[in-house]
Amino acid sequence: MPTIFRAILALLLVAAGPAAFAPEQFFVGRTEGVGTVQVIMSGKHGVRVQSRGRIDRGGALLLEQVVEEEGKPRRIRSWRLVRSGANQITGTLSDARGPVTGEVTGNVLHIRYRATEGPAVEQWITMLPGGRVARNRMIFRKFGMKVATVEETIRRVD
């Protein structure tokens, strides 16, 4: 393909903007996440997440995760997320106190919930071009102060 056509195609793709994030498509099947947890005054340590997702009969995304965080016992958590509007997400998380809420804006899913241990959690999952990799950024706050962050790369396995 001549260089001028490649340049025009690249400009068209940039002008089109990022693809809309569809968590109910991205998380169906197996995904793996690898990242780091930064806890205030405790330093950094690794985290690995193995996930398996499926859509139930009602259209909800069911996501089962095995979380292996350095220095902690392995744990299993379960998500149930459903579209409650064109861009709205609601649901539950086994290690959350109360509901999970969120919205999809372009290629970003922004989620909020309160962890069972108490901190408020905000999570931004950004789908990268190609649709097979996403970046996850989480912020944990207690009394309005940031106490921990997670930076993770999530890849579709199948």
Task: Spell out the key features of this protein.
158 residues, mainly beta, Lipocalin, 58% strand
Architecture overview:
This protein has two helices and ten strands, in the order ααββββββββββ. It is globular and about 40 Å long. The two termini are 31 Å apart. Helix content is 11%, strand content 58%. It has one domain (18-156): Beta Barrel (Lipocalin).
Tell me the CATH architecture: Beta Barrel
DSSP helical segment count? 2
Order of helices and strands, N to C?
HHEEEEEEEEEE
Distance between the termini: 31 Å
Kindly report the average pLDDT value.
89
Molecular shape: globular
Mind describing the biggest β-sheet?
Answer: 10 strands, antiparallel, barrel
* SS elements, strand count: 10
Structural class label: mainly beta
The low-pLDDT segments are 5-16
- When the domains are counted, the total is 1
Residues in β-strands, percent: over 45%
CATH superfamily membership, which one? Calycin beta-barrel core domain
Topology at a glance:
Elements (H helix, E strand, L loop, with lengths): L2 H14 L6 H4 L2 E11 L3 E13 L5 E9 L5 E9 L4 E6 L6 E6 L2 E7 L5 E8 L5 E10 L2 E12 L2
Antiparallel strand pairs: 1-2, 1-10, 2-3, 3-4, 4-5, 5-6, 6-7, 7-8, 8-9, 9-10
